[in-house]
User: Which sequence fits this backbone?
DNA sequence: CGGGCACTTGATGAATCTCAACGGAGGTGG
DNA sequence: CCACCTCCGTTGAGATTCATCAAGTGCCCG
């Protein structure tokens, strides 16, 4: 019993606005966001359920349950039995690996429509990472066995899930090569761009990361310390590449009109668009 | 046209034995290893085709072609159109990301039965990594569209592939946390244990890595330099943990009777078996 | 028998972690 | 509404790991 949502905690819908001087507005999570009526709509928008017929979607929907979490609350912990697969409905969720040395690694930040948790037929019977609510959020959960049945009944869903997981594998491999080859400042820049693509919303002055990202989050994404992350961010701010404050960040020139020049730190993309210059 | 095996190169079956003082015997790759007759047997042993009926397997087999490569030969390069999926039949294959800084990252070493290359329905239309023959090897290739059809026709295959890719994602995430959190020596030790699990064969005196692994390979797996890898290996050798020579390695105590004690470098496993000790 | 490659080892310096201290924002309780 | 307190972010100085540069050895192959 270590955080598996068998007995879902009370949703914290009544959470007061966190925003002060922050330009980041908290995702508006209202109680009816997870009512049975709306879950259909949410599941229907999930990439791998998109192609299901209405009645099929309804059948699938019956297998899911909703769970609410408040910020920083644990959804599951590594080591717990991996018996459930989740889909984010509202808010954002962090996937974190805790290492023996006490250092936390932020593997991913998930938005509505993203899946996480246990994948069926996977050898592992335990979660290998922690899942934690980053914002006030609502997730839909299905048992592994039920999801397994869904995959068997609707092959197209299985193919979509495969594509998603394969994409994540590619991303992870990109992260591996960055951790191996790039200096801290470039890794932070790369993390910012990745977050921008994923969570950015256009605002006057640039891409605003629409969820509270701390220096520690950036450090945990980049395999460094909060101090180093802070130093890099200060540099970027001084150079005018970003604006930032307490748990909010705006990337001033995401498209790289001024940034992605060769030699510049922001030139490091997530995936090199063209063939890498071999060093023969 | 940059290395896609449209026109497969001549197999180099006649390659003379590389073994000198090395205890690593080259995989015995004979020409008939890839004859049509034997391909059925090979494909039937592939994890995700194992459950196909004989006639189904035969139909699938017809879609594959065999390609032979000699050591260090490129199977495909990153940036090339990703239009083919491969399965290793004989030998071993390295997946390598080449970074802009010229540093190579060794993502994986693949054994017979392992798949690599393009996954269908995946957004990417180009390979993101290089695939290179590590030993003399034979691979079976199928076009992405044909593989897509296979997946659609045999849902069980799709589920198996999903499980495999999901497992690789977990591994990759483990690597990420190691690169982020562990010092060089521990990363090398961890790489050795991973290789041991994957490529090790019992031999008197310990687990012998049954494929030629250079210091540079270890460095590229661990995100460090050949010099650092060499220093770590020298330490391990002095401590009696391993034996090694020119492109061969024997792990003397893989089960960790003497090694996996707490505090020891070899205590770092690939995935922590029990809940991580939080540093609260 | 010569050259190249894999490996080793040492010295140096740069990148980055660690430790430490400080300022401000936001939230809490009086 | 103000005082306090905690957490986030910042910055500096010192310690440390690690990459880099530079030789040097032995094995294998041509």
Assistant:
């Amino acid at each position: 019993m270590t955080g598996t949502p068998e007995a879902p905690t009370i949703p914290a819908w009544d959470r007061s606005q966190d925003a002060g001087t922050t330009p980041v507005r908290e995702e508006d999570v209202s109680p009816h966001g997870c009512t049975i009526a709306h879950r259909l709509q949410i599941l229907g928008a999930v990439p791998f359920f998109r192609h299901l017929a209405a009645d099929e979607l309804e059948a699938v929907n019956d297998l899911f349950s909703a769970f609410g979490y408040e910020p920083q609350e644990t959804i599951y912990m590594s080591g717990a039995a991996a018996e459930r697969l989740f889909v984010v409905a509202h808010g954002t969720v962090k996937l974190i690996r805790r290492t023996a040395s006490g250092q936390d690694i932020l593997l991913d930040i998930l938005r509505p429509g993203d899946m996480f948790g246990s994948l069926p037929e996977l050898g592992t019977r335990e979660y290998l990472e922690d899942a934690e609510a980053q914002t006030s959020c609502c997730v839909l959960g299905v048992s592994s066995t039920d999801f397994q049945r869904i995959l068997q009944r609707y092959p197209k869903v299985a193919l979509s899930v495969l594509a998603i997981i394969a994409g994540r594998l590619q991303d992870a491999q990109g992260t591996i090569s960055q951790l191996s080859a790039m200096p801290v400042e470039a890794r932070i820049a790369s993390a910012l761009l990745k977050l921008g693509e994923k969570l950015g919303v256009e605002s006057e002055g640039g891409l605003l990361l629409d969820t509270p990202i701390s220096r520690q989050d950036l450090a945990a994404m980049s395999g460094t310390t909060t101090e180093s992350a802070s130093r890099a961010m200060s540099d970027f701010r001084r150079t005018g590449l970003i604006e930032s404050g307490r748990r909010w960040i705006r990337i001033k020139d995401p498209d790289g009109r001024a940034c992605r020049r060769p030699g510049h730190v922001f030139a490091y993309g997530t995936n090199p668009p063209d063939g890498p210059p071999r060093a023969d």
